[in-house]
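Batch manifest line 446
LIGAND: iron/sulfur cluster
JOB: complex structure
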Amino acid sequence: MLDTYYHSIRFDDSTCHGCMACMRVCPTQAIRIRHKRAVMLEDRCIDCGECIKSCTRNAVVPLTESMANLAKFDCTVAIPSPALYTQFDGDVTPGVILQALRNSGFTDAATLSWSCGAVTQAIELFVAAYRGPRPLISSFCPSVVRLVQVKYPELVDQLLPILSPREVAAREAKLKASSDTGLPPDRIGAVYVTPCPAKMVSIVDHPGMDRSYIDSAVGISELFPLLAPAIREVQTSGQKVAETETAAGLGWAFSINLPSSLPAEDTLSVWGLPNVLRILDDIDKGKLHRYTFVECHACFEGCVSGALTVENPYVARARALRLGQSLPRRDIVSGPELQARHARGDFATTAPFAPRPPRPLGRDIVGAIAKMQERDRLLDRLPGIDCGACGAPTCAAFAEDVVIGEAEEAQCVFVRQGRLEDAVRRLSEGPDRLRQAGPRAVGEPS
Ligand code: SF4
Ligand code: SF4
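JOB STATUS: finished
ARTIFACT:
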């Protein structure tokens, strides 16, 4: 198991004022407020970006690449998430956006349409031959993958071992750029234009892969101010652009497009982390083995509501549906060719998904059980109202922090108040009584 964690966000101490908004929305209880500032518990964060969306002071900073850093490559190919096509007013077509990317400094820009079609067929072929534990869980949302690794480590073998369309697209784009330019593939930078910080983590940590084919990721929100004028320029110049994106490719902006050959009654599509958590709980309890495939998205409307998008996700979704009607629906992947490539393992992940459970409470089982009992005893003494004043999202999380030495019991205002009342009462009973008794927590019998 890896013991270091790469994360694609950081908290900016100079702007955070410890308001707790991020702590309250974090789905994995990975944030604490310490000394009036937010801090991350690295072994719990799944890089979902919910904290970015909740912070009104922009104190949660995404660690994607800056455009200025892309000069390190001899040649750069932009690979936009389909969510990018939904961000511009006036229903700008994907062809115009791809051309604007080329005019903005990228050597080329490639779509995900071929890889989306190829991956969809690869899923069908894989599922038809699959005989392992069910259901399979989609592995294309990096936050969902990390959630499984962290919170449901026993389910890692049910993560779908098929590469994501963005990885397939990056590999194919680099091969094409290498053949076009004569440069070796390692001098070509495949840059994903990402709607969320979690994709950056999948590049650095590359779960299920020996290495990622993507070299870098730039957030849609970082690129937007540069791209909007470049788009207007393409539109006003009358420059002819080819439309290479398809309706199927665009569909991945807000759903994974469940393979049509899988019976609808045997598949589930789940959106939003609270719902994903419920479904993973049910899978963990063995309740859903009648289903073949479960598609999970951390964000409520899919990638169009990622933390690095700029458009209202509902507007973006409607725009994607409108654009999809005007784009070709053709199947761009030929069956026999695809089957041969699938048989060669062209779309298969290259490494197992490794579990990454949070650090245990104790060094061994006996120590962990003792700490759990200590935690439960403390929890009984706490008020159970999850006020957050101690800097933890719940009383249970606070009790755990105390037993592992990350917090002091007296950080709970109710414990402090109980001790104060106790001391005042004992003082009023006389100095002898005060000397006899030690401090007591709230709810402890006197
Ligand atoms: S939401 Fe979190 S990061 Fe932002 S100011 Fe409040 S405590 Fe700090
Ligand atoms: S990215 Fe998600 S899991 Fe990580 S600290 Fe923020 S809200 Fe919590």
